Amino acid sequence: MQGARTDSGRMIRILEADLTEQRVDAIVNAANETLLGGGGVDGAIHRAAGPDLLRACRALPEVRPGIRCPTGEARLTGGYALPARYVIHTVGPVWNGGDAGEPGLLAACYRNCLELARQKALATIAFPAISCGVFGYPPELAARIALREIDAHAWSGLEITVCCFGSRILESYRRAAGARDID
């Protein structure tokens, strides 16, 4: 396992791992606005959690027709068949070159997920590399935003894991953390 110390001294584990296998209080789902499953990490989480997750997502109110979670926001459900007690669903921005508010929306994803975790008094949380898959966010840029927001909004004692899919994303997160005393 690879650990990075943030500017505030918190430890973050950065690893190439299957998010759905993490034994933590909550995993974060990089979802779409419908929260009804999809591809990538979203589909993997829905498959691993079983049909109860889809039922729970369907039970969440729509804020607009077909939209249960707007980009940058977060919603909480149970973890069902996952080893995590909860799933925090967030919708990251689709990369459109960086001039369409993407950095602020991505930062909001991390802040809102951490706020839900704080409200539930969680001790452990695992994030994917939000928006770095099919949403096309450059991992080098996303990693800096993720680590900055985690450092600014996580609390002492919270154990954080970032599960990266693939070596390119993993190395981007490790490089972003490089100035932060990689263990």
Bulk shape: globular
What class, by secondary structure content?
A: alpha/beta
CATH architecture verdict: 3-Layer(aba) Sandwich
CATH superfamily: Leucine Aminopeptidase, subunit E, domain 1
GO molecular function, one term: O-acetyl-ADP-ribose deacetylase activity
Organism: Dokdonella immobilis
InterPro entries: Macro_dom (IPR002589), Macro_dom-like (IPR043472)
Pfam families: Macro (PF01661)
Describe what you observe in this structure.
The chain contains 5 helices and 7 strands, in the order βββααββαβαβα. It is an alpha/beta fold. It has one domain: Leucine Aminopeptidase, subunit E, domain 1. The chain has a 7-stranded mixed β-sheet, with helices on both faces. α4 links the parallel β6 and β7 (159-164). α3 (102-119) packs parallel to α4 and α4 (139-153) packs across α5 (167-177). The longest helix has 18 residues, at 102-119. Residues 179-183 have low confidence and may be disordered.
